[in-house]
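Exercise 7.
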Amino acid sequence: MKLINVNAADSIKTKAQKLERFLGEHYFHPGGMMYAMWYFNGDELRPFVSRDFDGMATFKIKAGTSMEALHNNENSPYNAGQFLWSQCLRYEVTKDDEALRYAAKAFRSLDLNYRLAEDRGEHGFFCKPYNLVYSTETSPDQYVPIAQGLWEYRKHCDRATRQRIEQQMLPAMSDWWRLRDYKIVYFDHEGDWLRHADARCQYGPSYVVMHVMAHQLTGKQEYRDEADRVLEFCLPFAWRHDLLREQMLNEGKTFWPERLNGYEYDASRRKYLHLDWENYAAISYPATALAWLIENDDTSNQPLMQHALANYLRHARQPLTEDLMSRYWNQTDLDTGKCYPLVRPRISTNRKDYIVDFDWNFCAYASKICWGEATARVADIALLAHRHATGFSPGALSLCRDILRRLNDDRLRWFIDPDGKQLMPEDIWLNRVLSSEVPAATALTYWRARAWNIDLDA
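Solution. The predicted structure, written as tokens, is:
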């Protein structure tokens, strides 16, 4: 049986329904946790096993996590949070019992994950549950859909579950980040995930959301105070390119690695160029956070947030191809604001020659490979900008529709090779991965629109 059959000719409603049914019926481990990624090659769709990586270029993290566990479980909490959120919105629109059933499965996945740390006295921690067991790994992005999914689910669940969410989980999530001062180790890298400018742009507004939620639920002033403190860090909600442009103009700082000399879209523009890889896709985190704050928090910053949403969309759409897929490797001209593909062959096996400092063959070269996750996020950002910053976001709703209209089985993948020539042979497995975001994100965007009385199929 072919578990997914999404065609570009399907209505967006049909695509959302096909994907949410696949997720709800097939994408949970028998133990209850939701999967992140699956092997996806032709009609073969299943959890990863070790043989899928035979002869392939892989990478290692300190915990010694296997590649199959890494990809089956890496973004399990993120995926479950998005799916929970989507099914809550679906229930609000349709009152369909199936939506509540799926939401309960997604919540159980999150609750099982939460209990892994709770049983160790570490309340508020959602780990990346490699091999379905506790790990010390997490990343701030996991909390973005979890917080908002739980916020919606509390309106529809039973009393005991609501109390667990309101009295334990959401306040503890706020505490976990605040009390550790936003410092974690992720993929062997210890970082400050608030004060570093990139991290602040990407995740700061999401921390504010968690603290505001905790304040509204508990009434404790310490949460409001922390929300306001972090908010000051974030203002005026600049995106990372805005900050980099300011540094370039004020300090003469350049952002083009010497190892990329000769691969510029125009060598005379070198002093204006910035290397981008995964950065564009992270715009979705502050965008979803600001949308929540506009809807749920009494703040004088709403006009600024509306302008920020429009600015986020402007940046997010820059790496889109003519066929509306988002490139993974890019060079951005900070002077003109235009984005161009970055293509460079592997010039050696020496890590110092890699495009970015990550010990993985995929980072040894740059190509026109496209990224499913980022494309799905652009559609959602466009919908958010249309809803909350309509006057500043021309074409936003049309862009959302156009991206989702093109969605088919091929575009459900983690990485999409547009011509079959962008990946080296040892990286070909990257084009055989079901995205950890596109299925749930499609359902979320569709039901978000329906909740706002927007017909994406119109």
